[in-house]
Amino acid sequence: MGASASFEPARAAYYVRTLIAARHASDAYEVWNSLRAKGVIPATYEQTRQNLIINGDFEQPILGMGFDWQLGQIEGAYISADETNFHSPSHSLLIQFSGKQNVDFQHLIQIAKVQPGRSYRLQGTMKTEGITTDSGPRLHVHDFYDPHALYQFSDDLKGNSMGWEPLMLDFKTPRNTTWIVVAVARVPSGKLDNLIAGKVWVDDITLTERPSQ
Question: Domain limits at 123?
Fold first, then answer.
């Protein structure tokens, strides 16, 4: 992509998405970083050794493309930024469940670059209010191209939490894994009373490499 004063976000998003879908995530990542170097994507949208998640505290606007957070739409759940409830100032992300669906929710995701055969820790904080059913929101990670190679969940939260609750998920990447999906997820309930209602606030998601044992 040449330098152009007339940048079209929708076109760039489509180009990056097409490269990722064609299993050229590394090329897509180079395009993403090129856009960041040109100032098209704010410099704050950057992985660091301390956190491989971009905008994990939700303080910056969500771009909804490339290697930033992506928000999907699904019946029975609604996602929005919240400036009234947060773990670290001054924003969190709020997911509201309508109570009318047994939602299979994996619609807040980010694609992250990792190293094969390494140990990682995914952490985040959540606060719940009135979460029903036996299956609540949790953290989730899987290999982007081969979920069978890596597919893990943290513990979930239900009911009303006592303030902000930490969630943690330790995992090791398989030898061929370089791209993973980090998500906030809710697994469908297998019980009769399975329509989920309530609210969950999400904040301060981090992904860090752990020292080798």
Answer: 56-209
